[in-house]
Every structure is written in C-alpha cells, then in structure tokens.
C-alpha cells in the first residue's frame, strides 16, 4: 500500500490478486466516522462462523462473539451474540461440537454448537483454578484438553484444562510462563509452545531476545506432566504466535507464524538499526523430523519486508491513524506491526497446499506451500484505507478460515469487518486438492466434502 496511493485516495479501493470480494459484514469504511468492528478471534463450525467484534462505540474486542449463519456466503445472517470477549483464545473443536474461550473476566466458557451452531448453548462458565489473563488458546486434536496461555499478560504459567467432561473442566498440568499460543500433535504426544519471554511492561528494557519454539512431551498430560524436550530460538521473531504441525509425506514440519520482528519499531524493537533483519516477522516452515534439532527451511517474506526496505517500510505510518475515528485505546498497537504477519491457517495438516495469513496493513496473503522448501505467494486481498480522504490503513488481524471446498476464505479486518473472498477460476483448489482421508483441520473447514 504505497504512501502516495494512501494520500491521493487510490488505496481506498484496496488491492487484490486472484481473490475477489463476494460479501462483507460490518464495513464502516468510507463513512464520516469509521469505527472498529472486526476483532482478532475467528473460527467456524459447519456453516456457522464465530468472531469477536468491537463494542458499539468501537472498542476492540469488547462487543462479544458474533454468530453468523454462512449457509449463503453472499448474504451472511447474524443469529446470536454471545457474552464472550475472548481476545485471541476463541477455538472450535469440530468433532466434539465445542466452542471455547477465556473471557476478559478470566472465566472459562464452553458452548455446545453441535445441536444448533446458529444458537450455541452455554455448557460451562466459571473459574478454573490456575487460569490467568485471557490471550490465546488451542484444543488438543481429540478435543479433551484445552490449552490456555496468556503471553506476558499474567504471572501464572500456561494451563492445560481437562474438558472431557465439559460441564466440569479441571486443571491438568501447568507449563511455561510467557507462552503466546501453540499446537498439539495429532496423537497428542507432542505440544509446541510459542515462548515469547518476559516483557518489560514499560517497553524500556529493549526486549530484543528472539522468541523460541518449545517442544514438550505431552503424552502424560493426564498425569499432570509435560516434559520439555527441546527449545529452538526463532530468528527475527520477537513475539511468536503459534504453530500448525503438518506432514509432507512422512516428514514432520511446523508452520510457524508470529508478529513483530526484532528490527521493527516499538516494544523494544531495533528500529531498522540492523541491515540484515526484516522489520517484520513472517511465517517460517520448520523441519522437526529431528525434534532436538529443528531447522528453518523457508521463510515467507514479502518484498516490503526485505531488510533494505526497512526505513521506507516503517515510514508508512505517516499518518498512521484514522483522521475522523473516535479515539480507540487499543488501536494504536497495530501501527508497530505495519506489514508483518499476525495469524495464519493452512488448508490441511497432511500435505498442505496453501497457507492463508492475516498481514495487518498487507491484508490477507495466501501462499502456495506444496513444496515446503520453495513456497511462493499465490494471492492477496488488501481492504486498503478507510476512505479517499482518510489514508489510515485497515488492519487485517484474524486467523483466516480456508474453505477449499468452495474456493473461499473468510477473514476480518478492523474496519471492514468480516469479508468473504473467492479465488479466481483455476487458482485454488488445485486439481489434486481433494483428499479421501481428510485430517481434522481439513474436515472442520470443509464439512461434508466428498472426493472421487
């Protein structure tokens, strides 16, 4: 999104390649006083979508969790609004029909969505001993454990919660403090945690230590044990976010994504003083076939993220914020992330073909990852700025949902709200994209798919 385009109004039309908008919900751009609508949590079950939204006065993440009927993706319909402000912790487990997250008051909430996904039924709402400030979370693949993590928002360690009896969740095991997000292997024996380290709360200490991948043996989690196997520093990653354990053939990899590179501005970043580091953090593909010696085999860097472009990239922030928007206390943080990556999802875990990522001011970015050693950008959709006379960028922040069955991606941005985009003909799904043995992630986002 070039600065001249933002200033002359061109960027208000947005940018796209191989993706076309077919519907949106909550768009406030182009109005005299645009307000935040979208949020940072988004997931789906069958033909229902769940997303955190802003409050009526535009405060990020304080408007509850919106439920949308997506049976007709060209005309989504709101069916419910849940009293759950989950930050980034909202997750669906499709096989068990569960929706869960940690509310801002630290209560843990579980909803049943199997009977009627349009009107989730509250199963549990209450405190779980050892729970900390809400930030992130994930389900084990079998849906019996929910991992709750707090990043640097709590002095408590992260917590694995037994949800096999959804009416009576109980703590199972605690593990490292300062975990942002993570994932658990298909067999449940390994858990991958995104360690981001202690943070200087006043951002005065220059927290430039890279994040780390922590690999735990979680095979005895029901006995209260998680054993650390190895830790791996993630270069140019100040705040790693999470992982997806994937396989290409028999070889194991992690798709890692995060936010805020070490050479960025704010939050202790180096501010372009390094000539070798990108100002932003981008997704890494990590070979973990030897889990004691992980190695990065590819990094998905955009042109704007090349180290030589650091100064011009970080200068994009002038002006950074909406001219006519009411002050939103939580909005200012996003300027520091600029053109980096926030959250990603692949289309599947077994032989994944694409990775879709929310990229703040870069919009939605989609990568062809069929060859983990040689990924390439496949498509993008950038909502652009808030209007012809308002050069502030709209930030894309939610984890996208990839609907390979329909050639669609669902995602949201702060001011344009939920957006449904469709791949141009012949772009995706690929010819051999259907699988007779769908993994749990592919099955969740492509309900009822049949191959053959």
Automatic annotation (TrEMBL):
It comes from Kibdelosporangium aridum. The lineage of its organism: Bacteria, Bacillati, Actinomycetota, Actinomycetes, Pseudonocardiales. This is WD40-like Beta Propeller Repeat.
């Amino acid at each position: 999104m070039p600065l001249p385009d933002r200033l002359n109004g061109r960027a208000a039309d947005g940018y796209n390649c191989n993706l076309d908008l077919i519907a949106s919900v909550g768009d406030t751009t182009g109005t005299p006083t645009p307000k935040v609508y979208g949020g940072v949590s988004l997931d789906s079950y069958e033909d229902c979508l769940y997303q955190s939204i802003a409050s009526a006065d535009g405060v990020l993440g304080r408007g509850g969790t919106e439920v949308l009927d997506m049976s007709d993706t060209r005309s989504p319909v709101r069916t419910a609004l849940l009293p759950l402000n989950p930050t980034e912790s909202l997750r669906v487990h499709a096989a068990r029909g569960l929706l869960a997250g940690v509310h801002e008051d630290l209560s843990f909430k579980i909803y049943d969505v199997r009977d009627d996904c349009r009107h989730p039924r509250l199963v549990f709402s209450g405190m779980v001993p050892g729970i900390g400030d809400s930030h992130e979370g994930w389900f084990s693949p079998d849906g019996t454990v929910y991992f709750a993590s707090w990043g640097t928002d709590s002095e408590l360690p992260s917590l694995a919660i037994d949800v096999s009896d959804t009416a009576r969740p109980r703590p199972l095991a605690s593990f490292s403090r300062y975990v942002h997000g993570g994932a658990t292997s298909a067999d449940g024996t390994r858990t991958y945690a995104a360690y981001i380290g202690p943070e200087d709360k006043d951002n005065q200490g220059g927290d430039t230590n890279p994040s780390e991948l922590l690999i735990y043996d979680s095979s005895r989690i029901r006995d209260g044990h998680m054993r650390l196997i190895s830790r791996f520093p993630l270069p140019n990653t100040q705040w790693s976010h999470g992982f997806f354990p994937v396989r290409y053939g028999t070889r194991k990899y992690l798709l890692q994504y995060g936010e805020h590179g070490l050479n960025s501005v704010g939050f202790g970043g180096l501010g372009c003083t390094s000539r070798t580091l990108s100002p932003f953090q981008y997704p890494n593909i990590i070979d973990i076939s030897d889990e004691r010696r992980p190695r990065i085999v590819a990094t998905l860097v955009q042109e704007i993220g090349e180290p030589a472009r650091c100064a011009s990239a970080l200068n994009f922030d002038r002006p950074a914020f909406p001219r006519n928007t009411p002050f939103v206390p939580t909005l200012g943080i996003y300027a520091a992330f600029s053109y980096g990556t926030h959250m990603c999802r692949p289309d599947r875990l077994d032989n994944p073909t694409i990775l879709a990522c929310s990229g703040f001011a870069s919009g939605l970015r989609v990568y062809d990852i069929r060859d983990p050693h040689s990924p390439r950008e496949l498509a993008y959709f950038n909502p652009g700025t808030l209007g012809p006379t308002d050069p502030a960028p709209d930030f894309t922040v939610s984890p996208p949902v990839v609907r390979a069955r329909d050639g669609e991606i669902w995602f949201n941005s702060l001011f344009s709200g939920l957006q449904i985009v469709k791949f141009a003909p012949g772009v995706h799904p690929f010819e051999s994209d259907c699988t007779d043995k769908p993994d749990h992630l592919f099955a969740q986002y492509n309900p009822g798919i049949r191959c053959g």
